[in-house]
Amino acid sequence: MNAYIQLTLSQLRFFVRNRQVLVFTLFMPLFFMIMLGSFLGKGNDIIVDGVVIDQDQSAESRVMVEALQANPILKLKPAEDMDMSLQQLKHGDQKLVVVIQKNYGEAVAKKGADSSKASFLQVYYDQTNQQSAQIGLQTIGQVADGVSKQMSNYMPIVKVEPVGVQALQLRYIDFLVPGILAMMIMTNNLNGVSGQIASWRERGVLRRMQSTPLKASTFIAAQITARLVMNTAQALIVLLVGALIFGTQVNGSWWLLMLFVVMGTLTFMSIGFIIAGLAKTPESVGPISGLISFPLMFLGGVFFSISSMPEFLQPIVKSIPITQLSTALRQIMNVGAGIGDLWQEGLFLAIWLVVSFIVATFTFKWE
């Protein structure tokens, strides 16, 4: 028992003192989370930027300007210089330039009697950005139609009854944080275990341990305990940073979240032991680990949703352990899913854990 505790504490001291380990196992995931969360974490709200130029300056034109600026999709700022606004549009600084022409108020006062002679609401748009242009033009058309109906006292025959349903509003950062957590667990254990064990074998550390009364089970148990403590602490730090900076939260059970953290740690530790056993030299561990972990980061639903991948690839992607881990963490944090909802992810991870552990027992070598 004393040897187990000493080995565990020694491994934890190694993690804390090794700056390179801290950088790659904690600071790099935090860097990815903060950078991607800052740029993309606010969600996918559609906003069309532009300017509105009121050349008429009448009471009627001011009503139209207010209606355009009140629309949540349009973000139109008032402007006066037509040439400068069009230059900004050509340079990509604006998406729309809306011009309310002169005599607009007079035409509205006559209820459109002269509307066939001129277009009193011109919209300049960027032809190279068709998506924003179509959204902007349709929205402006709806706003203009609403103003016209209001002025003509139009009474619709068919009315729409809106019924609101409270839906789960998720931002990209809510999707990203569980994925970063899964990525950190994978890289810490798959890359970390394989590299450390291969290095110790090369330097004869494992051979000297084998010659002592130390049991292999005690050595492995100390490794598992130390990495579980490290991964749990790092997971709490990532969740704390996400909550403080981006307002993310855990809607489900903390115990269930930690259970999947433990299962993910054990699974990727076992895979790390397999890589360490198959690699002939410490120098070959890095390329082998990178060849496995790097594709998994992009295929396992860490940064992007699996549903956006090609359909023929999705069954394969759903069978890898990081996909099950990231999905489970995401469901617990965002949806508040329970163990009954995540039995499939838990079963897949358990199968990976058992199979990897069995293979690791055959591939592990002390020398």
UniProtKB/TrEMBL annotation:
It is found in: Cell membrane; Membrane. The chain crosses the membrane at residues 21-40, 175-198, 219-246, 252-276, 288-306, 346-364. It holds the Pfam family ABC2_membrane_3. InterPro entries: ABC-2_transporter, ABC2_TM, ABC2_TM_bact-type, ABC_2_transport. Residues 137-367 form the ABC transmembrane type-2 domain. One of its GO terms (molecular function) is ABC-type transporter activity. This is Transport permease protein. Keywords: Cell membrane, Membrane, Transmembrane, Transmembrane helix, Transport. GO terms for cellular component: ATP-binding cassette (ABC) transporter complex. It is a multi-pass membrane protein. Belongs to the ABC-2 integral membrane protein family.
